[in-house]
Design the sequence.
C-alpha cells in the first residue's frame, strides 16, 4: 500500500495529516496483525512529541502510540471502540485522534519517501 | 530481530512458508511462521473447518529395548504400563522437586518401543535429561530422531475429511490419542496420530524430513483441503487455540518452578504406580502437606483491557497475589481470557480479582477451565 504524500511520518510508524489527524502506518498495522483494541486519551489531553498517547493491541501484541507533535487532543475516533479492525482494513484512512498543533512541527517529520526508505532499511528488504 | 549472530534453525518447509509470505519469528531458536493470512482467520479455520500447521520443530525421542518400559516409568509421571500398542497419552518429565522439565506426549509404538514427543525450545535439555536419568540402563537404546521427520498437524472438525482423501488408513477407527501407520500421499508407513494442540479434532502425521517430500505433502494437504477452506496456520493461532482449550505451554503454565499439582495436571500423574519416577517423592510430600498453596485458574476480564503474559494479578483492593501465565483476546469466544497462578483460597470460580494492565487495574473473574470445549459429535 502506498504512503500518502500529503501525510508526514515518524520512525515510530505514526502518520499525521495537516488537519491534525493521527494514525498508524500500513507497515505498523501489518506488523501488528489483527487489531482488537485501541486505547485512546480523553479529549483535551496534552500531547508531547515522542511520548505515548495510547496503545494499540493486536491478538498477540501491545504497542504504544507515540505522538508526532506537541499539542492537544481535539477529537477521538470513538468508532475504533467497536471496530478496531478498521485499522487493518485501511490504516491510511483510519485516524485515531485529531490534534490541535502548531503546523510548523510538520517540517521536521519524515516525508512519505523518507518513511518508505526508513522501513525498507529497518526490514532489510 | 536476532542480532546475536546465532543461526536460526529451519524446518524442511521454511521455503514453503516464505513463498506463502508468512510472517516469520524466532521461536526458541527456530525460524517459524507466526501467521500467514491473519491470526484470527487461521484460528477460526481450525475451530470451524480445518487448518494445517508445520510442527516439525517439535522433538522426538525414541526409547527401545527390553528395559524401555522401566525407563519410561522412571522418566515420566503418567503410567505407561496402561498404554496399549498404538496408544498415546499426555505425560511429563519432572525434576526431583516435582516441577517440570517438560511436558510430553508418549506413544507406545510396539512392545519395548516408545516415542516421546517433546517441545522445540527444550529439545537439547530434554535429550540430556533423558540420557542422564536412564543412562544406567544398558537395555535401553535412546534415539533422538527429531530431525528425521517433518511433523504436520491437520486440525479442525474437517481435518478427517481432508486426510481421508490422501490415505488408505481407516481414520474413523483411530480414537482420540491413538495412532496407526499407513500410506499417506503415496508414502508408506506414515505415522498417523489423532492428536493435536488445538482442542479440536485432528491428526498429526510424520513424514520424511527431506525438503522435496515435505513440500509435496504440505501442498497435497493444502490442495485436498481447498474444498473445506483449509488455511495454513502459524504459531500465533496455535497459541490462542491451545489457550482457549487451557492446554499448558512450557515456560508459561509449567516450568521448573511450578509443580504438577499447582498446574492442575495431577490427573496425568500416577503417584500410585509402582515405579519411583523422578519427582514422585516430592509430590507425595506436597500431597501430605495438604496440597499446593497456589493454583492455575482461568480468568476472564470484566472491564475493558487485555491481560497478557507476566501481568500481575491483584485482589480488588490492590494486593498483588499472582501472575498471568498466558493471556490474550480469544478469537472464538470474543472475550479477553487468561490463565494465572493465584493462591488456592482465591481460586474459586466467580472470585473477582484484578489484572494490572500497565497502569490500569482491570476487573476480572475466575472462570472454569477450559474456556472452550469442542462440541460433542451429533452423529
Sequence:
Amino acid at each position: 500500500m502506498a504512503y500518502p504524500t500529503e501525510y508526514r511520518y515518524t520512525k515510530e510508524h505514526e502518520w499525521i495529516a495537516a488537519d491534525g489527524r493521527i494514525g498508524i502506518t500500513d507497515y505498523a498495522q501489518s506488523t501488528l496483525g489483527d487489531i482488537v483494541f485501541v486505547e485512546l486519551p480523553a479529549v483535551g489531553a496534552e500531547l508531547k512529541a515522542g511520548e505515548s498517547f495510547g496503545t494499540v493491541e493486536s491478538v498477540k501484541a501491545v504497542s504504544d502510540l507515540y505522538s508526532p507533535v506537541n499539542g492537544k487532543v481535539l477529537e477521538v475516533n470513538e468508532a475504533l471502540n467497536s471496530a478496531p479492525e478498521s485499522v487493518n482494513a485501511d490504516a491510511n484512512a483510519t485516524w485515531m485522534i485529531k490534534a490541535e498543533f502548531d503546523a510548523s512541527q510538520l517540517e521536521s517529520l519524515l516525508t512519505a519517501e523518507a518513511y518508505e526508505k526508513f522501513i525498507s532499511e529497518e526490514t532489510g528488504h | 530481530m536476532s542480532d546475536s549472530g546465532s543461526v536460526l534453525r529451519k524446518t524442511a518447509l521454511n521455503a514453503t512458508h516464505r513463498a506463502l509470505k508468512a510472517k516469520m519469528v524466532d521461536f526458541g531458536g527456530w525460524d517459524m511462521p507466526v501467521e500467514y493470512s491473519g491470526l484470527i482467520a487461521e484460528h477460526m479455520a481450525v475451530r470451524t473447518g480445518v487448518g494445517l500447521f508445520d510442527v516439525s520443530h517439535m522433538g522426538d525421542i525414541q526409547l527401545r529395548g527390553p528395559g524401555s518400559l522401566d525407563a519410561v516409568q522412571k522418566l515420566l509421571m503418567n503410567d505407561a504400563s496402561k498404554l496399549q500398542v498404538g496408544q498415546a497419552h499426555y505425560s511429563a518429565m519432572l525434576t526431583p522437586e516435582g516441577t517440570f522439565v517438560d511436558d510430553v506426549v508418549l506413544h507406545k509404538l510396539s512392545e519395548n518401543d516408545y516415542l516421546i514427543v517433546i517441545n522445540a525450545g527444550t529439545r537439547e535439555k530434554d535429550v540430556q535429561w533423558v540420557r542422564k536419568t536412564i543412562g544406567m540402563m544398558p537395555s535401553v537404546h535412546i534415539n533422538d530422531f527429531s530431525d528425521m521427520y517433518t511433523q504436520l498437524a491437520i486440525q479442525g472438525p474437517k481435518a478427517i475429511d481432508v486426510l481421508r482423501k490422501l490415505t488408505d488408513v481407516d481414520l474413523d477407527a483411530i480414537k482420540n490419542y491413538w495412532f496407526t501407520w499407513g500410506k499417506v500421499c503415496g508414502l508408506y508407513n506414515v505415522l498417523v496420530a489423532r492428536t493435536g494442540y488445538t482442542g479440536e479434532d485432528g491428526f498429526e502425521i510424520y513424514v520424511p524430513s527431506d525438503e522435496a517430500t515435505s513440500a509435496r505433502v504440505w501442498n497435497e494437504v493444502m490442495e485436498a483441503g481447498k474444498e473445506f477452506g483449509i488455511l495454513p496456520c502459524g504459531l500465533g493461532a496455535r497459541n490462542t487455540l491451545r489457550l482457549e482449550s487451557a492446554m499448558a505451554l512450557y515456560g508459561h503454565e509449567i516450568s521448573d518452578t511450578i509443580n504438577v499439582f499447582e498446574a492442575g495436571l495431577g490427573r496425568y500423574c500416577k503417584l500410585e504406580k509402582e515405579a519411583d519416577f523422578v519427582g514422585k517423592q516430592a509430590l507425595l510430600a506436597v500431597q501430605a502437606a495438604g496440597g499446593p498453596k497456589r493454583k492455575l485458574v482461568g480468568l476472564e476480564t470484566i472491564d475493558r483491557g487485555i491481560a497478557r503474559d507476566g501481568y500481575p494479578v491483584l485482589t480488588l483492593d490492590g494486593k498483588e497475589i499472582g501472575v498471568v501465565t498466558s493471556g490474550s483476546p480469544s478469537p472464538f469466544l470474543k472475550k479477553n481470557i487468561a490463565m494465572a497462578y493465584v493462591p488456592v483460597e482465591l481460586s474459586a470460580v466467580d472470585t473477582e480479582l484484578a489484572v494490572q494492565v500497565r497502569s490500569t487495574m482491570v476487573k476480572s473473574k475466575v472462570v472454569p477451565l477450559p474456556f472452550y470445549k469442542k462440541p460433542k459429535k451429533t452423529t
